[in-house]
Specification:
ABC1_TM_dom, transmembrane helix, alpha/beta, binds adenosine-5'-triphosphate, 575 residues, transmembrane, four-stranded antiparallel sheet, ABC-type oligopeptide transporter activity
Length: 575
């Protein structure tokens, strides 16, 4: 947690004033019982009304100061904690944005969400407590002991018995609660993970009639979380009556001992009353500190989880001095590229070398899992190659800034991702300052205009989160329009025409050809018809290139290609 507290620097003045006001509150509260004992001893016992009024007035002033300090302290500490929480969330979010896909896989999306929300809230809560109790509780405890001692030495002996008993009881309870608090956080992660999977996969869950199974899975994770939470709260609930019992026993003992001393004229009633109040203040401050000791480990567990995220050094970093290609055309070259996914035994791509030139369409075809998407992932630098290099316009992509690299590329991923907003917003995602004409033009080429205009509000129609109110083919076309509006040097289509009917597919590609005549176009496809007329077809099989050339050439020379073609086209089509 200390590591995270370095970010508190920004709030140092707020913290200073919180501590100052908490100090004023503690001192005022310590002074009140003494004033009260004065009123009892010198006012009430002697019937001196003027004295009572005078000291009563003092008491009012001191109590007022204490209340105002308490209010201001609470306000300032909350401001600090909320500000700190915001700052941390921002830091975690910014860090996560820079993660490569590897790091996402390592921590998991659900856990990243819990860490950014719940874990940071835990730290916020503890920070408020720390700021309020850090100064207040020790002053109340030590000051209380000193004041109590000044009222009566003998009575202080009662405290010498009670305080250790109090501390031991709290320590025993805390020892039980702390591990449970740590477990709570993990169980919350699990509930979040199942919830997320279910919300995203609801269609599949229903289609496979797995609603009951999923409900059971959620119920079990939820119950596990609830059981632990109940266990924690049972112990915490026990704490309160035990504390009250101990406090009352302390009260009774003090009164019993004090009564004898008052009888023997060794103690005044006012001093006994003040002593009782000091004893309560001491016990309360111990409770406060112990609550902090229980809460801190929980926040500590959260802090560790946040630190883990903040300390991950993204594997993919920008070079210190990024290079820019002298001539920028979008020429791609793979030189002996081998790549293995983290933890995988065999490489997903092995010794891949090819060129994709501007003005040409380069297609990649191959069976499922042959490494087609991986090639595109590597060009986008979602992962770094294991050996070999990828050059764009002669510059290794690891020597370029990621921003520059990605600004050259219009990428249409295999799984379409749309954001909540209008159709226009989604297309404009490709180019922030795109004009309405540019957006319409992109939609036109992507063959999306017709269905967009058929929607109630045309280009201003709302796309729901994840694009659930659109069909697969409609989503694909919007995703293509989003890449087109960017007018990049390199287009990468990852199986992006698979959900289109043949007619739309052919129309779209012929329009696309006109639009992308000067760009480098990479098309990953399963359908031979989609890539037959490409300038270069790369045939992949188990991560290796087994053929490269034009359609007719490959038909003659490449066995794998022939197999793919004959499984899809009729004899006449092949001829
Ligand atoms: N994130 C990942 N972590 C580990 N292995 C992966 C990951 N993504 C893909 N792979 C593996 O890498 C290999 C190549 O996958 P890739 O997605 O490139 O295939 P593909 O040819 O695009 O297949 P498809 O046509 O089915 O999309 C596969 O064996 C796959 O299991």
């Amino acid at each position: 947690m200390i590591k995270l507290f370095r970010y508190l620097e920004k709030f140092k003045w707020l913290i200073f004033f919180t501590l100052l006001f908490m100090f004023v509150q503690a001192i005022s509260e310590l002074y009140l019982p003494t004033l009260m004992s004065e009123i009892v001893n010198n006012g009430m016992m002697k019937g001196d009304t003027v004295f009572i009024w005078k000291y009563g007035g003092y008491m009012l002033l001191v109590a007022g100061a204490s209340s105002i300090s308490s209010i201001i302290g609470a306000f300032l500490s909350s401001r600090t904690a909320v500000g700190f929480g915001t700052l941390l969330r921002d830091k975690v979010f910014t860090k996560v944005e820079g993660f490569s896909l590897n790091e996402f896989d390592k921590i998991g999306t659900a856990s990243l969400i819990t860490r950014t929300t719940n874990d940071i809230t835990q730290i916020q809560t503890v920070l408020v407590m720390m700021m309020r109790f850090m100064i207040y509780a020790p002053i109340m405890c030590i000051g209380g002991i000193i004041m109590a001692y000044s009222k009566d030495k003998h009575l202080t002996l009662v405290l010498a018995f009670v305080l250790p008993l109090f501390v031991v009881t709290i320590a025993l309870l805390a020892a039980k609660v702390v591990p449970l608090f740590k477990a709570l956080q993990k169980k919350l992660d699990k509930v979040n993970q199942i919830l997320r999977e279910n919300l995203i996969g609801i269609r599949v869950i229903r289609a496979f009639n797995r609603v009951e199974t999923e409900r059971k899975r959620f119920y079990e994770a939820n119950k596990d979380l609830t059981d632990t939470a109940i266990k924690v709260n049972k112990i915490l609930a026990m704490m309160q009556p035990i504390m009250i019992l101990l406090m009352n026993l302390t009260n009774i003992t003090i009164i019993w001992v004090a009564a004898k001393r008052i009888d023997a004229n060794k103690l005044q009633i006012g001093d006994m009353m003040a002593f009782i109040q000091y004893a309560m203040q001491i016990l309360f401050s111990i409770i406060m500190v112990s609550i902090m000791f229980v809460m801190v480990p929980r926040a500590q567990a959260s802090a560790e989880r946040i630190n883990e995220v903040l300390e991950i050094e993204p594997e993919i970093k920008d070079p210190k001095e990024p290079k820019t290609p002298k001539i920028s055309k979008g020429h791609i070259e793979f030189r002996n590229v081998t790549f293995r996914y983290p933890g995988a035994e065999s490489p997903a791509l092995e010794n891949i070398s090819f060129e994709a030139k501007p003005g040409e369409v380069t297609a990649i075809i191959g069976g499922t899992g042959s490494g087609k998407s991986t090639i595109l992932n590597l060009i986008m630098r979602f992962y770094d190659v294991e050996s070999g290099s990828i050059l764009i316009d002669g510059v290794d992509i690891r020597d370029m800034s990621q921003k520059e690299l990605r600004s050259k590329i219009g990428y249409v991923p295999q799984t379409v991702v749309l954001f909540s907003g209008t159709i226009k917003d989604n297309i404009r995602y490709g180019k922030e300052d795109a004009t309405d004409e540019e957006i319409m033009r992109a939609a036109e080429i992507a063959q999306a205009t017709e269905f967009i205009l058929n929607m109630k509000d045309g280009f201003d129609s709302l796309v729901s989160q994840g694009g659930t109110n659109l069909s697969g083919g409609q989503k694909q076309r919007l995703s293509i329009a989003r890449a087109l509006v960017k007018k990049p040097q390199i287009y990468m289509f990852d199986d992006s025409f698979s959900a289109l009917d043949f007619k739309t597919d052919a129309k779209l590609r012929s329009e696309l050809k006109k639009e992308t005549s000067n760009s480098t176009v990479l098309i990953v496809a399963q359908r031979v018809a989609t890539i037959m007329d490409a300038d270069k077809i790369i045939v992949l099989d188990e991560g290796k290139i087994v053929g490269m050339g034009k359609h007719e050439e490959l038909l003659r020379t490449c066995e794998v290609y022939r197999e793919i073609v004959s499984s899809q086209l009729s004899e006449e089509e092949i001829a």
